[in-house]
Amino acid sequence: xxxxxxxxxxxxxxxxxxxxxxxxxxxxxxxxxxxxxxxxxxxxxxxxxxxxxxxxxxxxxxxxxxxxxxxxxxxxxxxxxxxxxxxxxxxxxxxxxxxxxxxxxxxxxxxxxxxxxxxxxxxxxxxxxxxxxxxxxxxxxxxxxxxxxxxxxxxxxxxxxxxxxxxxxxxxxxxxxxxxxxxxxxxxxxxxxxxxxxxxxxxxxxxxxxxxxxxxxxxxxxxxxxxxxxxxxxxxxxxxxxxxxxxxxxxxxxxxxxxxxxxxxxxxxxxxxxxxxxxxxxxxxxxxxxxxxxxxxxxxxxxxxxxxxxxxxxxxxxxxxxxxxxxxxxxxxxxxxxxxxxxxxxxxxxxxxxxxxxxxxxxx
Length: 364
Ligand SMILES: [Zn+2]
Prior knowledge:
Blueprint: H1 3-13, E1 26-29, E2 38-42, H2 47-56, E3 60-63, H3 80-90, E4 94-97, H4 100-104, H5 109-116, E5 120-129, E6 132-140, H6 144-153, E7 167-175, E8 192-204, H7 208-218, E9 226-230, E10 234-250, H8 252-263, E11 269-270, E12 278-287, H9 292-297, E13 302-306, H10 310-314, E14 321-324, H11 327-331, H12 334-345, E15 350-353
Parallel strand pairs: 2-3, 2-15, 3-4, 12-13, 13-14
Antiparallel strand pairs: 1-4, 5-10, 6-8, 6-9, 7-8, 10-12, 11-14
The chain binds zinc ion.
Residues 65, 286, 327, 331 line the site of zinc ion (ZN).
């Protein structure tokens, strides 16, 4: 198994096209052809984490936060980013980051935060738009089933809990091959009419190349008639944050204890409790203040995230209670999820969780 196999596996879960425009997720250093001897999973990739990887014989690090974020103009070791990169490169350690793409992925960071709190009946708080496309193509009726099977296998036709979704209608296809054509049906310069099916499916935009390749492979024609359309549809399984419910409503005291206990917190910052039962909870791993409006619209009693600024706390007014539990604390559980995912997909090398506490923030 190579570094590229691990990248591919991570990107099947969290495609790079789902990252925010400012982000830098993906393979940050190392050769894609290198054989993986062991993976170390961490939230941040720091010098201490690279040293831990060396000690444990791991030659790949899979982190949530990209150590290289703003771009590097030199590599002289003048700060921790450069020193981390130099140490990794000198020791042939590949560094991979799955960041905002993993925030947005199904069963991503916020999902696992909600899970850790024992929340149920959840859904994505701000689902993606414009991440789905529609494929419509024309195929001789007798070959329609074969092409549908091929594009389904490539990831087309999934809607929520339903797979192999498509719509067909039948009609007449017409064409005239020229003298250079090599038609499956008909002959040069002779107008042809064929009983055809028009098949329509929806597919994730990032799978377009593979879906079209599968269609062309399975389709009997030399020239496939098709069109791809971008959609404005909401994709409910993919997006930012998560909103779900406690199995039983709690008062502020009970909830506060539950929050600390579930996540092992010594303390957290919050706005005023609203004096109403707490049941509906919105969460966002990391810096989630941009989702406060969505949390209030979703009727959340509490919004749990990290990195709120002083003035942002005022925005909750009396609509919901903000609980700022800390950036690290709201995301660290993703290590377990990455560990479970990679261990499940790879058995030829060790997949380890980093024991380094990379949180730069301490509480006195
Ligand atoms: Zn983060």
